[in-house]
Specification:
The protein is an alpha/beta fold. It folds into 2 domains: 67 residues, Hypothetical PUA domain-like, domain 1 (Ribosomal Protein L25, Chain P, Beta Barrel), CATH 2.40.240; 165 residues, Alpha/beta knot, CATH 3.40.1280.10. It is built from 7 helices and 13 strands. The strands form 2 sheets. Strands 6, 7, 8, 9, 10, 11, 12 and 13 form an 8-stranded parallel sheet that branches. The chain has a 5-stranded mixed sheet with strand order 1-3-4-5-2. Helix 3 links the parallel strand 7 and strand 8. The chain is elongated and about 60 Å long. It comes from Kiloniella laminariae. Pfam families: Methyltrans_RNA, PUA_4. InterPro entries: Alpha/beta_knot_MTases, PUA-like_sf, RsmE, RsmE_MTase_dom, RsmE_PUA-like, tRNA_m1G_MTases_N. One of its GO terms (biological process) is methylation. Specifically methylates the N3 position of the uracil ring of uridine 1498 (m3U1498) in 16S rRNA. Acts on the fully assembled 30S ribosomal subunit.
Length: 263
């Protein structure tokens, strides 16, 4: 498969012969950052039609038009894993949204706990990071970002068929790799079912929150080792373990459609 100059997520319906117009931000990126010209190849994708080859027809200040030529990748099934986390400071929450996308999260849910310091979450900015992450990591879908809610409300609305891994040491939480490996042995298709990972605030969960979580039938407590991890580090560690053992970590890397520069 021939490489393209970059990949862009688009809402437009993609089919052979379609014309796609980009917003001013995407047009600026192609024209002023990548310095592309008419005739350049761009990968256009979404979760409905997969990835298609787009050829730049016209490009100017604040606008770009592309002609959709051919399908490059059919839509692919993805594992269903959510990240639920207590909001953290700006630079680190941006990092978290980006890495959640790279690690295959279908959805991220910020939740306010008793000891959460951050009181507001800019979900629009997080969604932009999630979109950029999908464009760079060869995904065909973009992680959905929900509005922040309280932990109590999250529990009230939680789907009973979705298992929740809580990264918190309440009771005798077993090591995360041990829990996932045992589960995979007893239930080989466990990774095909809905899952979520919950990361608490920097100050930890309150005693009442831990007790409420421990009573839920769909909750599995896990430990992440002997060190105290920052919330963003804990999220990356837990998601990586899940993907490696229950998720798609056993699949081969994609051949890739965008250029890779090795320095």
């Amino acid at each position: 498969m021939e490489r393209v100059n970059t990949r862009l997520y688009v809402e437009d319906k993609l089919f052979e012969g379609a014309t796609v117009g980009l917003d001013s931000a995407a047009a600026h990126y192609l024209r002023s950052v990548l310095r592309l010209e008419p005739g350049a190849r761009v990968g256009l994708f979404n979760e409905r039609e997969g990835e298609w080859l787009g050829i730049i027809d016209g490009l100017g200040k604040g606008w770009c038009s592309l002609r959709v030529k051919e399908c490059r990748r059919e839509i692919e099934a993805e594992r269903d894993i959510w990240l639920v986390f207590a909001p953290i400071k700006r630079s680190r929450i941006d990092f978290l949204a980006e890495k959640a996308g790279e690690l295959g999260c279908s959805r991220i849910l910020p939740v306010f706990t008793r000891y959460t310091d951050v009181k507001r979450v800019n979900t629009e900015r997080l969604a932009a990071h999630a979109k950029e992450s999908a464009e760079q990591c060869e995904r065909l879908s973009v992680t959905r970002v929900d509005e922040a809610v309280s932990l109590e409300k999250m529990i009230q609305n939680w789907p009973a068929d979705r298992r929740l891994v809580v990264c918190a040491e309440f009771g005798e939480a077993r090591p995360i790799a041990e829990v996932f490996t045992e589960l995979l042995r007893d239930e080989p298709d466990a990774g095909l079912k809905p899952w979520a990972v919950l990361i608490g605030p920097e100050g930890g969960f309150s005693k009442e929150e831990l007790e409420a979580l421990s009573r839920l039938s769909y909750v599995t407590p896990v430990g992440l080792g002997p060190r105290v991890l920052r919330a963003d580090t804990a999220a990356v560690a837990a998601l990586s373990c899940w993907q490696a053992i229950l998720g798609d970590g056993g699949m081969r890397p994609p051949k890739g459609t965008t250029p890779v520069t090795i320095t």
